[in-house]
Amino acid sequence: MNLPGKEYDIIKKEILKRKPKKILLQAPEGMKTSVQNIAGRIRALGPKCIIWADPCFGACDIPENPAKMLGSDFIVHIGHAQFMDTKEIPVLYIECRSDADFSKVIESNLSVIPNKKIGLVATIQHLGAIPKIKGILEKNGKEVFIGKSKRMKYKGQVLGCDAGAAEAIEDKVNCFITLASGKFHALGVAKKVQKPVFLANLDTGKIESTDKEKLLFEKKRILKLEKLKDAKNVGILVSTKRGQLSNTDDLEKKLEQKGKKVWVLAMDYISPEKILGMKLDILINTACPRIEEDLIFGVPVVNKGEII
Ligand code: SF4
Question: Are 162 and 151 in contact, with CB atoms under 8 Å apart?
Fold first, then answer.
């Protein structure tokens, strides 16, 4: 994926205005092939540019401490909208929008959505598709609602850990359609609301229900909570990424009161090999919910929000 010209113009304008000396540049995995090109163009404007090569989780993953250690005075974060306030080093968020067109998926699958009142949500990359899809749905007799999360910058925007845009309008709609790539965000919405949630899937060209995944998630959650009851050694995963950092004092206390041995396992980038060899029966994840979905730890992992 390349960075469009108008995003370069924003970077250029900010650099000329702020005159930073050393920029820390952070880009999503999908842009790693063009990150050197972006860094080169930044360098041509005057400042030094360091590429932050660690994987970028999302909007909450701003490398503030590394930037300080590296002597950077400005962070350029590509791919997400502003999500958290940064304290010491200014951050320029460069949002990337996809030009993927969901119209065909929606138009050819309208029969899948018999409901009249529809809530529309999207990931930041696909927010631009909302007006067109809203128009198509309305032309076909649907009433479309778009909510807003208090923590999000835009109406309709959802994150894997924030479905506030859907929750805000749940009582007005019969179902939700999520415009996203992959089921992670649609399932994130489904976990938070009681109404049916569909994904407009560009890969399959279909509108897909998340009911099966939600049911499976619920079954697994119940099993994991049973495991937690019997567990003797409980690990709590804590990420030192500021946007994911959680205070675990209360959780530790609660678990200890239940007779558990509790081990707080702190790291910046959470990955299974870092805790290999430790004696643990279950893990409680306090960081990004994606960790529980994407990584295999050898013991069950339950997200903190799912147990309290
Ligand atoms: S915690 Fe995970 S889902 Fe939430 S913003 Fe961060 S990366 Fe995205």
Answer: yes
pLDDT in tens, 54-65: 988 888 899 998
Q: 242: which DSSP letter? A: T
Q: Name the pTM for this structure.
A: 0.88
H or E element at residue 192: helix 184-192
Based on the fold, state whether residues 186 and 116 are members of the same structural domain.
yes
Taking CA atoms, 59 is separated from 50, 82, 158, 185, 206, in Å, by 19, 7, 11, 14, 28
CATH of residue 71's domain is: 3.40.50.11840
State whether 48 and 124 are in the same domain.
no
In a shared domain, residues 80 and 137: no
Q: Specify the residue with its C-alpha closest to ligand 1, atom 6.
A: 60
In a shared domain, residues 240 and 261: yes
Which residue among 84, 192, 238, 244 is best mutated to probe the pocket of ligand 1, counting the most ligand atoms within 8 A of its Cβ?
244
106-123 pLDDT per residue, tens: 999 999 888 899 999 999
Q: Which of 26, 60, 149, 157 to mutate to test the pocket of ligand 1 (most atoms within 8 A of CB)?
A: 60
Domain count for the chain: 3
